[in-house]
Write the structure tokens for this entry.
Amino acid sequence: MPAVIILIVFFAIHYGVYRTWLPHSMMAKAQVYHVEPLKNMGRYLERMLLSQKEGLFLYALALWGVWLIRKNWQHLWLVAWYVVYHLAFMLRAPLFDWYLHPPIFVVIFFSGIAVGYILNQFEQRCSHRLSNYRRVYEVSLKALIVLVAFIVNFQYAKAKLRYRIYEREVREAAGRWLALHTSPSDLVFTESLGYIGFFSRNRFVDWPGLVDTSVPTLVKGLSRIEGYKRIIEAKNPHYLVLRDIEWRSLKKAIGLKYKIIAQFPSPFPEYPGYIIAKRK
Amino acid sequence: MNSNPKLQPSWFLVTAALFYLAFWIQTDWTIEDGMIVARVARNFATYGVLSYNTTSWVSSCTSTLFAFIVGLLALIGIPPLIAAKIIGISAALMGGWILYKAALRVQCPCHASITAGIYMLLPPTVAYATCGLETPFYTLACMVALFSIPCKSPQIALTAGAIAAIIRPDGLLALLIVIMGIWWRKNSFACAG
């Protein structure tokens, strides 16, 4: 009963406030991102399994863990959810890394069972010797985990720090530029609503239309760049904040109407720089 | 292993909390979409509008509920980015605790704490705890829902499943699995009886 009340109250309030049952952002993405199930499945599995190859042994351990407790059916509902979750995302949703994270606890739960089995075997064989050093053994195990975690997290943090430097010098800088040089009532078009939007105070319109309910229908069936053109024509924004590659693709169509007034080159070659163009 | 189960979680909870804080301080990483949540929450705290643009009400975040909670914390003076990360870290720590409790059903306390420790110190868990998105909060709700299926009372599992569904619409999948699990359990007990 509480579950039904929670669902009814939340969705009723959501509908009352936003006039949509589901988040508009979700519907906008669903309308605009063209997901080819088979292609998406391949990309999804590749990202899930091969982007961190060193994590593959955890999947192998997890399979073994599932086998070890196969008779305990109550835990197999975790496996059912894991499969349904990934299938739903790989067949329909556009691929963003953060969708991959939630089910990881299932992998670790089952791989933990396999690790526990290995440790049990070891402890039984060495029970005579371990009986005097049980405390030392436990502390050493945990220290080993912390040490390995420290090494891998250090590498991971270095990659994220690089990302942060990029954001600070490019998208955050573009947002701060808008905050300094434009009026809050000026309309800005961009695809990257996060850092740029947070560090500025302008009104925004975006592709695929997360913040404007009229945009998804406007750009439905169009390619990304065609969609940009349609939004710019229809909404006539005062400023555009675009990746340099997007600007190059749009220049022919809108170059007469807009001119670049600020540039934010990327400190790293693998990430794009941004430009701000103003309506003439 | 004859370890005190009450003391076992302390090592991984303390270590994970330190890792999360160190990662936050070291990288100051927030995911691009986390900044959208932060702007929506800031608009709610400043203008009373839970929306990206203050001129219209549009649910621009995948998790309106998460943006609302961050907005409430922003309303009492906690900057939205910090509020989102505090929720993330708290949810990730609670998630580790839930995983430990679940692992205790099939493992000794020492091994269960190792399972929880591996999960909590995994680089993506550390990073997503401080990413500014609803991910750890949603994961926690799914964990509670799914690990509660074997419990005697189905209420906890169903309520957590419903919470997962209102955090993110795909949480309905967790709720669906919970309903099937409870139904299966009831029927198998009925057959056994």
In short: Chain B is about 75% helix and 0% strand. Chain B touches chain A through 93 residues (CB under 8 Å). The two ends of chain B are 36 Å apart (CA to CA). Residues 8-192 of chain B form one domain.
